[in-house]
Amino acid sequence: MRVPPTIALACVALACLAPALCADDGASSSVPWIRCTPTTVQLPGGEIREAVNPIARALEEASPGSVVHLDPGDYPAFTIGFDNHSPNNARAAGGNERFPVVIDGLGSARIIGKGDAIAIDQRVPNAHITFKNLTIVPGQRSGVIFYRQSHRVHRGYAFEDCHILGGYDHVAGRGNPSKWGLSGHSLADFRFEGVTAPARVERIRDEHAFYIQNHRGPVLIRNVRAWGLGRTFCQFTARARDGAPGYGDITVRDCDVFDVCLSSRDGFKGGAAFTFAGRLRCTIELSGNIYRAGFREPFRALTRPGQPYGTGAVAVWQGGEAQRNGTLVLRDNRFLLAPESGDRPVVTIGGCDRVLLVGSNEIVAGGEYAALALDPVNAAGRPVSSPNGSVFLAPQTKLRGDLTIGAKAATEEERLGLEKP
After folding, report:
1. Which residues pair with 287 in a beta bridge?
2. What percent of the chain has pLDDT over 70?
3. Nearest Cα residue to 98 out of 131, 125, 127
4. How much is the pLDDT for 334?
5. Is 23 exposed, middle or buried (0-12, 13-18, 19+ CB in 10 A)?
6. Measured distance CA(102)–CA(95) in Å, rounded
7. Is 122 exposed, middle or buried (0-12, 13-18, 19+ CB in 10 A)?
8. What is the DSSP letter of 59?
């Protein structure tokens, strides 16, 4: 049968278009899924391989868009992107912006740390890996650590519905040691969030839940519930000796934080819960967070003799660096200290180009210290940072405690002045 010319031309056109229509759009169908048990890796063809470290081997087999399913159980610690051939290391590229590689613990898989539970470097470049539904048990150093970079970036890492659960009891003064929940240098397009329920970070012995240094792009921490930490919930720095200034907006949203900064090594005074220190040339937004200190009796004994329990909720300053921070936005937060708690102002802000307290923030002091301290000074009365630029304080802001500017309590006229856009 003779094919009409118009149909023939259409078939030719489709044949020419077919390579483009089937061209790699960033995803790969070659390895759509991989299944792991704590001792094996199974590929789509059905082949099952024994593995010393199944997650590391699965990452090496994965391609953009692959989903690695973890059967219930305890999995060994692993590394990504180191230039070695350890059985615990994945020399893996990961995914891309549209199609990350996904490691899904299905809610019943745990990564058990030794020094670290998950450690990531860029000597073998990698990016865009999402961890879901995992419990991460920190080793003596960290639950997750992203190694310091000079020029490369840790891009596109995400943690969804993952928990970092340490094993140290601060009240009893015993348990498994750990330093950080997550420590990261040179992060960009990073997320750690509770998607279906709050993610949890708990019982870290020495330091921070999140210690983020010299970030290189947007960072989001959302819907995390944290308590029992040696130092802060989050500390962001961009020290000159550690690299470039921090760029990319920082967003900390809908987090519930209580009873932190508890390390006995710091005399139970390890900073403020949300700390931002210098050269963060970006917008920092704290939105919808709750911080509480002093409301749980067993913890109130964790303090120095003659000192009140607890520290502060927020500290934003230059951290001894020459460069200021960018814009700070506080929106609809509640920072609450119980009566007779807190050894410093609840919220301290200095060294920012612009400060915006918008919505209905509530800041409650527990004793003699201010609720909100702008342009704070040290014990000798000297500024600890350069003065803030413009400051706006929404009229809906609820302060229970003083507002100070520099070394003095603000007058009613000064407060009204801050309320004008």
Report:
1. 253, 331
2. 93
3. 127
4. 98
5. exposed
6. 9
7. buried
8. H
Rounded CA separation 132/119 (Å): 17
| C-alpha to C-alpha distance for 371 and 346, rounded to whole angstroms | 5
Is the CA virtual torsion 165, 166, 171, 174 positive or negative? positive
- Per residue in 59-87, pLDDT tens? 999 999 999 999 999 999 999 999 999 99
- Position 10 confidence tier, pLDDT thresholds 50, 70, 90: very low
Q: Is pLDDT at 410 greater than 60 in this prediction?
A: yes
For residue 412, report the phi and psi dihedrals to the nearest 5 degrees.
Answer: -60, -35
Q: Which two tokens stand for residue 285?
A: 């937004």
- Enter the pTM of the model: 0.93
Over residues 196-213, the pLDDT tens digits come to: 999 999 999 999 999 999
What's the pLDDT score for residue 71? 98
Return the amino acid letter for 247: Y
Neighbours of 307 (CB within 10 A): 11
Q: What is the pLDDT of residue 26?
A: 53
CB 231 within 8 A of CB 208: yes
Question: What b/e readout covers 363-379, taking b as 16+ CB neighbours within 10 angstroms?
Answer: bbbbeebbbbbbbbbee
| Greatest Cα-to-Cα distance within the chain, rounded to the nearest angstrom | 100
Q: Rounded to an integer, what distance in angstroms lies between the CA atom of residue 69 and that of residue 76?
A: 15
Q: Above 60 in pLDDT, residue 12?
A: no
Closest alpha carbon to 214 in 286, 313, 125, 282: 282
**Sign (positive or negative) of CA dihedral 148, 74, 90, 24:** negative
3-state secondary structure 5-34: HHHHHHHHHHHHHHHHHCCCCCCCCCCCEE
Please give the single-letter amino acid code of residue 2.
R
* E strands, 94-179, in order: 101-112, 116-120, 129-137, 142-146, 154-155, 158-160, 163-165, 168-169, 174-175
Burial of 265 (0-12, 13-18, 19+ CB in 10 A): exposed
